[in-house]
Structures are given as structure tokens and as C-alpha cells.
Amino acid sequence: MTNLTNALASENQPAATFEALEALVVETIGAKLFTTMEIDPSRGVARRNYSNMPDAYPTSGEKPIEKDAWTAQVQERHETFVANSIEEIAAVFPDYGLIQSLGCESFLNLPIVVNGIAIGTLNCLHDAGHYTPERVTAAETLKQPGALAFLLDAYLKNEAK
Asked: Whole-angstrom Cα distance, residue 144 to residue 113?
């Protein structure tokens, strides 16, 4: 967490903090593709606010939040979502072909919850079968650093207004 602490002091915000968060995620549970998604439940939209593969998954635009089993699990019950095969990913995410083309066949969505509300997700993708029960347990340690990154991003957006 030292790198994240150092990143917070950087003037290159919020990029420095999200990059340090990515490094922590890779070190803790592993991720080939790492993105973060900001959730705005009051407007019913989500927006990607960080991506380590911006050509495939850019950080622009918003998408409506669909009411489905994934939303109930991650955004409402605040439970981690894990899919360890491309078939499990395809059942939930229509962009499974792009995911597979990037060499990823497992998926972990970690909800970031503040004040009882899911404000975002850490989206970690890797080889098939990568997110073992041990890695899912280890992912719990990423919630506080994830919250810090999302809250910093929100603060900076508010300051820019």
C-alpha cells in the first residue's frame, strides 16, 4: 500500500492513484486486463474511469445500468462476482469475444461500497480458472484501496466544477 500512499501525493491525479491501485491488484490477485467502473445509481448509469487497455476498453462515455442477476449480486448485495471460464463470462457479458481476444477467460468484479452504496467496481480479468477461492478471499483486501481511489476521483471531479 506504500506505492498507493505515494501515488496520492502525486500531482498526476487521479491517474497516478489508479495506476498504483492496478499495481496492487496485480500483486495481490493478478490481472491481465484491469478496469474500474464508477456507478451512479441516482442516474442509473455506469462509467469506466480507468483502464489498462484503453484501446479495447476506453474511459469515455456512460452506459445504462441493466437490472439483471449481475446487478443484484454486485451492486445491490455487494457480493463479488467471479466467472472462471469464457462460457460463464458469455452468460453475463455480451463483449465476451473481445475479452477472449485479449487472452482473458476469467473475470472478477469486486464491488466498492461506501456508506452502504456500491460506488464502483474493480474489474479484473485473467486466464481461465485464475480466480481461485484463495484469490477471491485476497481480493477483499483491495476494497479499502479501491474506495480511496474512487473517493479521490469523485473529490477531484467535484473540485473541477
From this structure: 9
